[in-house]
Amino acid sequence: MKILVPVDFSDQSLLAVKTAKSIAEAEKGEVVLLHMLDIPNFYGTDIIRELNSDESFFMMKGAKQKMEEFLEKVKSDSIEISSDIKLDNTYTGIIEYAEDVAADYILMGSHGASGIKEVFVGSNTEKVVRRSTVPVICVKDYQENLQFKNVVFASNFYKESDTVLPYLKQFVKDFNCNVHLLRVNTEKDFETTWYSRKVMQKFIEEADLGTECTINIYNDDSVENGIMRFANEINADAMLVSTHHRRGLNHWFNGSLGSDLVNHAIHPVVTFRIK
C-alpha cells in the first residue's frame, strides 16, 4: 500500500504524515511526501516547468532544506518514507503525481499553514476530492494507531454506486473492515424504509464485498448531518462516500455540503470518485 501525503511543513501536515505512518505501519505500506511549489495563475504551466531563474532555484533549495528537516521528524525504522518536491499548480500537481507514482491513497489534513493553505481547505481540497481518481483520505487530527475496522459507506445505492465498487472492495481488502451501509433520508429526498432496504440488500448481494455488512436508514435534516451523526453513534473509524467530478460529494450534495463534510467531520472521510 502506497500513501501519498501533500505537505506544507506546518504542524497540521506533520499530524497528517504521522497518521499516514500509523496506517502504513499497521498495513505494511509506504508513505510518499509531496511538497508543491505552487504556480501563480498568470504563468503558463509549460513555461514554469522549464523555469531556471534564480528565484526558482532558491525556492527549490529552501524547500529541499525544509523537507530534509521535516523528514527527520517523521522518519521510521519499520516503513519506507520517501519525498519529492514539484513546481506545479497545487491540486492538478497532486492528482497527476498520485497517478504517476501509482499511489493507492492520498491522505490530506483538513487545513494547513499560510502559503499553500488551500491545499488542505477550500477550493483546492474540493478539487482534489472531486477530481482525483485515487481515493482520498481526509483527516482533521493525528489519530494514533488509526485502523479502519468499522466504517460507514453512505450512498443512495442506485446504479451509479456500482461504479465505485472496485474502490470500495479494494478498501475492504486493504483494511479488512466491516461496513455499515447508510442511506440518509431527508425531507427533500425521502424514500420509504421498505424500498431503501430492498435496494441496499440488492447492493450487498451484487457487490459481494466479502465482509460483514449492516443496513442502516437514518432520518435527518441533511445528508451531511445524518452521516456525521450516525458515524458518531456507532463510533465509526471513518466515513466512506462517493464523489462526482461535477457535483461534489455524491449526487445528493452541492459543492458546499461536500466541503462541509470533509472540513467539519471529526472522523476521517474517505472519498471514491464516481466514474
Q: What do you see in this structure?
A:
The structure is a single chain. The protein has helices spanning 11-27, 45-49, 54-74, 90-100, 123-131, 165-175, 193-207, 223-233, 255-264, and strands spanning 2-6, 30-38, 81-88, 105-109, 136-139, 150-154, 178-185, 213-219, 238-244, 248-249, 269-273. It has nine helices and eleven strands. Strands 1, 2, 3, 4, 5, 6, 7, 8, 9, 10 and 11 form an eleven-stranded mixed sheet that branches. Helix 4 (90-100) runs parallel beside helix 5. The protein has two domains: 2-139, Rossmann fold; 150-273, HUPs (Rossmann fold, 3-Layer(aba) Sandwich), CATH 3.40.50.620. Helix content is 40%, strand content 24%.
Compact summary:
The protein has helices at residues 11-27, 45-49, 54-74, 90-100, 123-131, 165-175, 193-207, 223-233, 255-264, and strands at 2-6, 30-38, 81-88, 105-109, 136-139, 150-154, 178-185, 213-219, 238-244, 248-249, 269-273. The chain is an alpha/beta fold and 275 residues long. The chain has 2 domains: 2-139, 3-Layer(aba) Sandwich (Rossmann fold), CATH 3.40.50.620; 150-273, HUPs (Rossmann fold), CATH 3.40.50.
